[in-house]
Amino acid sequence: MTFMTQKLILGSSSKYRQNLLNRLGLTFTTLSPNIDESRLENEAPEQYIERITKAKALALKNTLDNNCILITSDQCATFNGDIIGKPHTRDNAIKQLKRFSGQKIEFLTGLYVVNTLNQLDRYSLSTYSVTFRELTEREIQRYIEIDSPLDCAGSFKCESLGAALFKQMEGYDPTSLEGLPLIETCNSLRAVGLNPLA
Question: Does Zinc-finger appear among the keywords (predicted)?
Answer without folding.
Answer: no
